[in-house]
Amino acid sequence: MLLFYGYLYFVYMLKKNAKSIINKRSHVLIATFSPWKNGVRLPINGNLEPMRDYFVPRVKKVVLIDQVYPGSDFVLPRVEVYEYGKFVSFLKSSFIVTILSPLLWFSNTSGTHIVFKMRDYLSVIVEGLRTNKPFDFFVGFEAINALAGVFLRRFGRVKKVVYYVSDYSPDRYRQKWFNDLYLWLDRQAAMHADIIWDVSPAMQPARVKAGLDQTKSASVIIVPNALYPRQICALPINQIERHTLVFMGTLGVENGPDVAITAMLHILKRISDAKLHIVGGGTDEQRLKHLAQSLRVEHAVTFHGFVADREKVSALIRKYQVAVAPYKYIHGSARLYGDATKIRAYMAAGLPTVTTSVPPLGKLIAQLGAGSIVGDSPEELAREVVQLFLNKEQYVRMRRAAFKFAKKNTWDNEYQKAIEAS
Q1: Residue 239 CB neighbours (<10 A)
Q2: For residue 14, what pLDDT band results from cuts at 50, 70 and 90?
Q3: β partners of residue 244
C-alpha cells in the first residue's frame, strides 16, 4: 500500500512539473544589462544578479546575456552559461555582433545609442539560435530585448516571452521622433509578449494613456523590486543613533539630496545634534559637499561615498533613525512611474521614511503607516523629520509598520509569485 501511494505521488509530481513553465528540466534565456567600471559590475543594473540567483538553482540551464551599458569598460555583450546550478562558461560574441565593435566604441558614452540597441537585438537572436534545444522561458529587460524574444518565438526557439520593465516614462526623451520611437517599441513589446512584468502599478495606465490599446496588451503582473534576506534586518531601538537621518542612492538633483542637505538648516534649529548621512557617490558628490559648506552645515553632514555591496549598505543605514527620499517633481521623470528600490531598502532596515508624492511606492508606505509624504521643499522635509525625532510613539509605530512591510519582500518571493502567475 505504501508503495502504491508513493507511486501516485511520483506521478502527481511529474504532472505538476510538466504543467509548470519553470522546472528542473527548463532552459531559460535572460537578456538584461549592467554597467561595468574598472572591471567590476556595478549594482545599479537590470536586476541581473537577482534573476540569475533565482533561476540558476531551479532550472537545468540558464543563458544570461549581460548587455553592458554604454560608457562601460567594454562594448560587447558578456554571455554567461549555467547548467545544473553551476557556472559553465562564457560565450564569445558572434561575428555578426562583433563587427559592430568600431561603432560601439565610437558611441561608448553614457546614454541611449541606436547602435547599442542594434547590438542588443542581434545578441538575443544569436544566442537564441546557438543551442539545439529551444528555450522554455525568455526574460527580456527593455522593449528591444522582448521584441527579439518575440522573433525567436515565431521561429520556435522560445516558448514564452516575458517583457520585464523597470524604467518607463511616456516623456522619456526630449527629441520627439526619438521619444515616439521609444513609445512605439514599448507598445509593440507590450502587445506581442506573452506577459508583462512591471515593477510598478503606475506603468500600464501610463502606457494606455500614451496610446497602447488595452485590449491588445499582454497581461500585466506587478513584480516589484526586492531585497535579499540578509538585507532585511532592523536593529533594536537602543542601538539606533538618535537624531540621525540618512539619504541613500544616486545623487542627481531629481533624487533630492540637495533638499535633504538644505533641510538641515531648519532641522538644526530644533535639534542641535542632528546628523545627516549621505550614502552614494559620483560626480555630484563634490557639488553637494560645496552646498553643505555654503550653508554652513558641513559639520552635520557625513558623506560615506559609493558603497557597492548591497549588504554593507543595509548594515550601514540600519544604524540611523529616519530615512529620507525627497524626490523632486520633474515632468517626464521615470521616477513618477517606477519602483523606488531605496525606499524598500529603508523599510527592510526598519526606517520610517519621509518621501514625496513622486514615487508610487511612497503613497503605499504612507497608507500602511510606514512613511509620510511631504512636498519637495526643505522646509516641509525638515518639519516632518523633526516631528519623528520628537514623537517617540509615532516613530515606533512607523518603524514597526516599515519592517512588517519588508519582511516578505525578497527576490525569491517576488519572482516565485510572478512565475506562478505567468
Answers
A1: 9
A2: very low
A3: 275
Cα separation, 372 vs 149, in Å, equals: 41
> 141 and 25 in contact (C-beta within 8 Å)?
no
Name the band, by pLDDT with cuts 50, 70 and 90, for residue 288. Answer: very high
For residue 163, pLDDT beyond 50: yes
Could you identify the residue written with the cell 500585466? 220
Q: DSSP assignment of 226-277, as one string?
A: -B-GGG-----GGGS-TTEEEEES---GGG-HHHHHHHHHHHHHH-TT-EEE
Range 280-287 average pLDDT: 92
Taking the alpha carbons of 220, 359, 363, 212 in that order, is the dihedral positive or negative? negative
Alpha-carbon distance of 318 to 402, in angstroms, equals 12
Q: Which stretch of DSSP H or E encloses residue 162?
A: strand 161-165
Give the helix/strand (H/E) hosting 31.
strand 27-34
pLDDT of amino acid 3: 52
Phi-psi region of 203 (alpha: psi -120 to 50; beta: other; left: phi over 0): alpha
Residue 217: HSE in the Cβ half-sphere, 13 Å Cα cutoff: 19
pLDDT tens digits for range 347-405: 999 999 999 999 999 999 999 999 999 999 999 999 999 999 999 999 999 999 999 99
Looking at residue 61, what is its pLDDT?
97
Q: What is the pLDDT of residue 82?
A: 98
The chain-wide mean pLDDT, for the chain, equals: 93
Q: Is there a contact between 5 and 12 (Cβ–Cβ < 8 Å)?
A: no
Cell of 218: 499582454
